[in-house]
Structures are given as C-alpha cells and as structure tokens.
Design goal:
single chain, 376 residues, alpha/beta, TIM Barrel, 2 domains, 8-stranded parallel sheet, 3-stranded antiparallel sheet, 12% strand, globular
C-alpha cells in the first residue's frame, strides 16, 4: 500500500479474552475446543462443522474442525503489529460473529456492557489509531438494548454497532426490531451488517464436507447478507427509518450484482401490485444503495469492486481486511497477509492506483463517513 495514502481498515475483528472464556465453557456451537491432535485451540463457529466436531471428539486421529485460535484473535498488541506490518493507519475494530446472539437474555445485557467497555479501553490505549463498532445484547429486553445504545452513543471511540442478520431471531425485517433501528439512527451510530448463519447445510449437497469452508464462506455468507437486506427493503425498513445508515460486509454480498434482478421481480410480482406496494414515487433498491448503504471492499477482486462502485458509488466504499480471518497458510502469520494484498490490489485496479478514488476508498471515505477524529 502506498505510503502517502491514509489507510483505514473498517472490517477487522477481535475476541476479547472474556469472550473466549464463554466460548470455552460451551458444549454447543459456537465454542472453543482443544484437541490433542491440534497445537492451538480451535474456534468453531459454523453449524456446518457440527459433524466434523463430533468425529474429532470421538476419534483422536480425525482432523479437528474450525480455525486455530491464535493470538491474532485476542491480542491488542498483535492487532497493532498487524496494522504496522500492513501500513494501516486506523482500524475500526469489532467483535466477530456470532457476537452475543447465543447468550440468554439474563446474560447478554451485562456482558454486552462489559465487551463494549473492553473495546473502548483498547481504543483508549491507542488514541487516534483505534475506533470500534459496539455490540448490542439483542436477546435482552428492548429497554436493555436501548440502554446499550445510549451507552455506546457516549463512548468516545464508538462509531457504530455491528449487527448480524438474525436480529432478534426473526431477521432484519422483524417489526419488533424497528424501535432498535430507530434508536441506533437517532444516536447517529452506523450499523455494520455482517453475516454468520449462512444457508442451510443441505443446500450444499452430500459432498460438501469434501470442500472445506469454501461453500458456506464464499457463497453462503454473501447470499445471507443479500437476503437480509432485500427483506429489509421489501418490508419498508429503509423508508420507515430514513436516517438509518448501514455498512454491508463483503461489498454487500451479491446485492450490487442482483439489484437489477430484484427490481425486475418486484415490478412483475402480482401480489405486490395487488397490494399497491409497487407504485409511483417508490424508492428503488438502487436509491437505497446510494442513499443509506455503504459497502466495504472485502471482495478480493476488481470485478466485484466495480459492481459495488457502480451500485453504490466510489465515495461510499471503504477498505477492510477481515483480520484475523484468512491468514496465510504457507508463510509466517507475522508477515504480510496475501488476503490483505488482494483487497488493496483490487481497489487499485478498480479505480486506478494512486487516484483520488483510490485514496478515498482506502481511507478518506471512512474518515469522513465515520468521523474518525477523536471527540473532544
């Protein structure tokens, strides 16, 4: 990455030690488990890994599922070292999936406050270099969630909230979620929408286990985001909460590519026509993409980025690394990561290396959109 370019990473995760302790205590996915055949504990997040987990627990010779839980997931010093190695000036860190979605209502409120305080403290140790997206205890009562939003609004380094597609458990078009969207928008916090649940395992077919994580991560995650945001659009959420602003992970899934097809299906749907949901003055999917949605640049190719730019605009695209996921498999993790280089190269190829648009996508958009200056 060019030394004269401000680089901001808005898609970068951490699991605080207290969060890892909860995962270690669990017996159902998501969990952290140690295996005699693996040097590091394994982070197991996806239901698609359940069968492999059972096999590894029964057979010490079986390959354990999940990802090695290295210090890149939990160490603040490691995060800063990663930033320095890749010449990243500012990172907006967030708790990675599945956030607090699996916690009981009696636990999530207090633990959410604790996690957000931990992230705030991390940012305070590196002022100006770190900001964060807070975590909402969505399994807790509405007043508890609103209280969490109020807390985040007043934390110096908080710039938004990270949210999964499950919402309160019924998706992001759930009417019960509307007061939370309204509260987030009123607090001027941006929603960073990130997938976790993917698609049902049987979608991938009987041989899916032979293909590692490729199908659920490469295809399931982007489709999950696309479906969630399309449902929000169809339910009128963006019209009901016009001040809501969302950053979509992984360049919006397949939304930039499929927006035209979604529009065509809406216009030709007899049910929507009969119910007068299609008519004059309707804001299209394209309008929402250009007015209320931002996209990260975590898509690893200029082909995908060009679609994202055409759909939303180069002034609405922000660089990300998805650290600590997608580490190098054949080289030292303390060196440069190929996945980071792929994203940076894609930006340069899509808009021109060193161009005004490249500098905007690599950092200046994030500084402007998220207000990445220390609050007084």
């Amino acid at each position: 990455m060019a030394s004269n370019t401000t680089v901001v990473d808005i898609h970068t995760h951490m699991y605080p030690p207290s969060y890892v302790e909860i995962l270690q205590s669990r017996t159902a996915i998501p969990l952290v488990r140690s295996f005699p055949q693996a040097p590091d504990p394994r982070l197991i997040l996806l239901q698609a890994e359940a069968e492999a987990l059972d096999d590894a627990l029964r057979d010490p010779a079986a390959k354990p599922p999940g990802r090695p839980l290295t210090s890149h997931y939990t160490s603040l010093d490691q995060k800063i070292r990663f930033m320095d190695t890749h010449r990243i000036d500012v990172s907006v860190i967030s708790l990675a999936n599945p956030w607090l979605d699996f916690l009981d209502a009696s636990q999530s409120g207090a633990f959410g406050r604790s996690v957000n305080a931990e992230f705030s403290d991390m940012c305070g140790r590196h002022p100006g270099r770190l900001f964060f997206f807070g975590t909402l205890p969505l399994t807790a009562p509405l007043e508890t969630v609103r209280g969490s939003i109020g807390q985040l609004k007043h934390l110096k380094y908080c710039r938004g909230v990270i949210l999964g597609t499950s919402g309160l458990g019924k998706g992001l078009d759930d009417p019960d979620l509307l007061p939370i969207f309204e509260a987030v928008a009123a607090a001027r916090l941006t929603v960073f929408l990130h997938p976790h649940y993917g698609l049902p395992n049987d979608v991938w077919g009987p041989r899916a286990a032979e293909y590692g994580h490729v199908l659920p991560l490469a295809l399931g995650f982007p489709m999950e985001t696309t479906i969630a945001v399309t449902r929000m659009y169809l339910a009128g959420v963006f019209d009901k909460v016009r001040d809501l602003r969302m950053i979509l992970a992984h360049s919006g899934g397949t939304l930039p590519f499929l927006a035209g097809r979604i529009e065509s299906c809406i216009l030709h749907d007899g049910q929507l026509v009969r119910e007068a949901k299609v008519g004059r003055g309707r804001r299209t999917v394209w309008d929402v993409l250009k007015e209320q949605v931002y996209l990260d640049a975590v898509i690893y190719s200029d082909v995908g980025l060009k679609a994202a730019i055409d759909a939303s605009g180069a002034d609405r695209l922000m660089f990300g690394t998805d650290h600590p996921f997608f580490p190098p498999l054949t080289t030292d993790e303390q060196g440069e990561w190929e996945s980071v280089g792929l994203n940076a190269a894609a930006v340069a190829k899509a808009v021109g290396e060193g161009s005004v648009e490249a500098k905007a996508c690599m950092g200046l958009n994030a500084v402007r959109i998220l207000g990445l200056r220390e609050k007084p």
